[in-house]
Every structure is written in structure tokens, then in C-alpha cells.
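Obj.: predict assembly geometry.
Materials: sequence records (below).
Method: joint structure prediction, all chains together.
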Amino acid sequence: MLGLMQSHPLSISSLIEFAAGKHGDTEIVSRRVEGDVHRSNWATVAKRARKVANALGGEGLAFSDRVATLAWNGYRHLELYFGVSGVGQVLHTINPRLHPDQIAWIANHAEDRMVCFDLSFLPIIQAIHAKCPLVRKWVALCEAKALPTETGIPNLVSYEAWIEPAPDQFDWPSFDENSASSMCYTSGTTGNPKAALYSHRSTILHAYAAALPDVMNISARDAILPVVPMFHVNAWGIPYSAAATGAKLVFPGPALDGQSVYELIEGEGVTFAAGVPTVWQMLLGHMKPKGLKFSTLQRTVIGGSACPPAMMDTFMKDYGVTVLHAWGMTELSPLGTLGTLKFKHTRLSHEDQRHILLKQGRCIYGIDMKIVDDEGKSQPHDGKAFGNLMVKGPWVVRDYYKADGPSPLVDGWFPTGDVATIDPDGYMQITDRSKDVIKSGGEWISSIDIENIAMAHEAVAMAACVGMPHPKWDERPIVVVVTKPGATVTREALLAFYEGKIAKWQVPDDVVFVETIPLGATGKMLKTKLREQLHGYRLPGL
Ligand code: AMP
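Observations (raw C-alpha cells):
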């Protein structure tokens, strides 16, 4: 017997219409690339999202065609979030911090038909447009009068000119809730980047879950500052949860320095902010010497990399701000776990509570997780045994977009590449990473890319890239090199060899020359051994 309840497909367009209808005057505030602070609200975002939908209708795109963005957090990006997905196209958010060649590769792999970009990224577009033959239109997120002439880019329009003639009324189409809504590439541990392809259903379920009190506790009484970029896993889903709850949104644009972020928090009455540890490092670094305090900020979600204990202490003790430690992945839309206490913990001492909260948190309803050994055998949840962390749930990928190999799932579980413990209360703690990547300031650097470039140098016989702890960036890469017999290369020459091949921030901080690199039985480099060998090593300048 089927239930007798109405069946409505879950859709991103329903979010924006809800926000517009029930919270129309709630503000959306953005620091723009132009430097000024712009004020909009949910009603206006909805109107302009409908204009986007109408304008897209004139572009001859097919259902599920990809429309890319290369943009900071701001109101125009938000309008595209709802307009593009709402009409049935796929919003492809691209990370502008990548090397232009990687961006072109990603745009071609996704088969993007249109690319919408902030003017600050014009040089990237100038470098890649000729390499992206499938892109029919380039849309600069600016006024018509701000659009530079003589850019050399064909089919370039300003966003405002593009949507200006389009009506602000639109009947959103209804379609299967499993249709693709947005996509985000993540750095491949081997080979090229891979894309998570989210659906309307997965996005809405994640939006509900993210707003729960034990998750981000998002409500209509919040003013939220997502410092986490909208090009990285949809700013952790915050734009959708904010629309579902009618929260105010405050966007930092490109200004992520401590002073700019602090001014926005205070000026806009921000109650909740989200970002990677590096961003908070910059904020606290700005506030401490000046003796500044928060007047409205209540909580911050810190994730993407482990939250340093000292950072949690500073937020909690010095500023009275609750820290929510979150763990997630691009492949998980991204939220998997979040650190909040249970009732039985509320009477524990601060020290005991801190111990719990520093873990990566417990499963959000919808996500299931387990740890397994290398043979796939489940390990106990005793807080001591560690294993490869596996997850499943309705907002976890089952495959990558256009993947040519087998599905990454193992018996229905997605292997995260993280190594973790899970305690009897369900709190997960990351202890290591089995994937060969380095995370610096919340962004991935592929060890393999770094090694391949070094190996292409005529003097290098073997190269291993490892991440070293860094107080600001969490990790920075170094490359450990064995030179060919009789050949020499200096540290400076090898570092110069990386120039132009990868983005500047991905270039290793140092080169360490060694006689040998430890190898395992199968000839694979043993990075764990190598890290032991490097014990006591300090990055230059620290
Ligand atoms: P991304 O797909 O870029 O969001 O990166 C996901 C990966 O970042 C995870 O698999 C972890 O390796 C790492 N990560 C995310 N959150 C945390 C955290 N709270 N603590 C430690 N590592 C984290």
C-alpha cells in the first residue's frame, strides 16, 4: 500500500520561491569585486534568478547543459545558483585558483556551454577562451559600462546587459528530482580532476540536514557569512540552507583578509560564519593585536582541514564563540559529520567537552559511516582502532561525472581516503590521510603533479612530494629528490622549473636532496617512512 501524501519533486527552484515569498525583505549583502558593499534581498534575488532563467531560455541550451561560474561569493553568483539549476541546466562552479590550463581542461571535460565570471578573472578567460570551443557565450558579472573593450574574447556580454531585457516572471519547470543540478571538480589523487555531480534531490536533502540544530543550526534569525567559497562544494551548501530557512546572507567577495572579514561581521550583525582554518587564522591575527571583540558572532563552523586546538580555544574562551568542527568532502555535498555535544556531555568539565569537540564530529542523519582495514574488514568503534573511513548516504556520490573506470564504491560504500577512529558515542576523528594529496589553505595540491614535474627535470632520478605542517596554511608541499648519478640541480633551479606548469601557490616550498627514498615491496614510495626520515625538518622561514 502506498502512502496517500502528495508527491512533489524536490527542486532548487522551490527554495528560491520559498525564500522570496516568505522572507522577501531579508537582506543579501555582498562586498563586490568593485570594492563597494551591495545590498539586495531574497525577493530581488528571486526576480533576477527568474531573469537568468528567461535569458538562458534564449541561448538554445539543452536540458542538463552545463553553465559554469568562475566567481567569488556574491549576489550575482547566488542568482546563478538558483536561475541555472532552477531552469534545468547544471551549474558548474569552477575554482579560479587553479592554473588556467587546468581550468580549460575542466571546462572542456564538463562541456560547459557558457561561462559566467567575475571581472577580476578576465585574464584567465583571455588565456583560455580559445581553448574552449564548446563555450558559446562568456558572461562578465558586471554592468555593461564596466565591460572592457578590446578583450579579444568573442561572444562576451556583461551579465547586467544579458539579463536586462529578460522578464522577471518565470514558471519554473518541474522535472525528476534526481536530475543533475550542479557540479564541482575535486583534485584527483591520480590523474585528472574528477567531478561530483549533485542532483536536486541530494541538494535539498543536504539543505535540510545542514540546517538542523546539531548541524549548522541555521534559522531565520541568522546572518550568515560564508567565507568558504561558492566555487568549493557550493559554499558547504549554505546558500541553499539559507534560502530554506530565510537567513540573511553576507558575502565577502574577494576580500578575505582579516580586516575586511571583521568589518563585515560587525557591520552586518553576522551571527554565524563558515570557513577553513586559514581564513580564521587571518581574522584572529587581525583582531588580537587590536583588542577587537565580536558583538554578534555566536558560532563558526570550521572544516575542510582539522581545526587547530588553539584556534578552538581562542574562539571559545577569548571571544565566547562556539566552534563547530565539521568534516566533509566534495563527494559528500560536502557535510558528513559535525561536532556537537550530546545531552549526557553537557555536565562534563570544559576540558572533557573540548576533547570531544576537537574530534571531527558525529554523523549527520542521512550519512552512515564505518572504518575498515586494508582487507575491508570493519573495525570496532572504540575510539582506538583506526581504519579507512567509508561513507554512504543520499548526498554521497555513487560515481564521478564521465568516469571511465569502475565506480569508486566498495559494496555501496564510498572510500573517503581519510583514515579515522570512531568512538562508542559515534564521534569520528581523522588520524591520517591515505590519499596522496596535500591540503594547503583549504585547497588541494596533487603530490603526483609535483612529483611528475620534478621527474621531468633532466637531473632528477626520483622525486617524492610530502606535506609539511604550516601554522597558516595547515600544510605546505616540499619535494624530496634523488638526483641522477653525476647530475646536479640546485634547489632554486628546481623550484624555478615549476614556474608556469602549475599555479604559483602549488609550487613546493622547498627541495630536500636525499641519497635514497624508501620503497615498499611493490616499488611504491613509502611516504610514511619518508615522513619519519624527515622528522625534525622545518619549512624555510618557520
Ligand atoms: P574537499 O573535497 O576539497 O572538500 O576535501 C575533503 C577532504 O578534506 C577530506 O577527505 C579530508 O581529507 C579533508 N578534511 C575536510 N574536513 C576536515 C577536517 N575537519 N579535519 C581534517 N581533514 C578534513
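Conclusions so far: Residues 186, 233, 303-306, 325-330, 334, 360, 416-418, 430, 433, 439, 444 surround adenosine monophosphate (CB under 6 Å).
To do: check interface contacts against the pulldown list.
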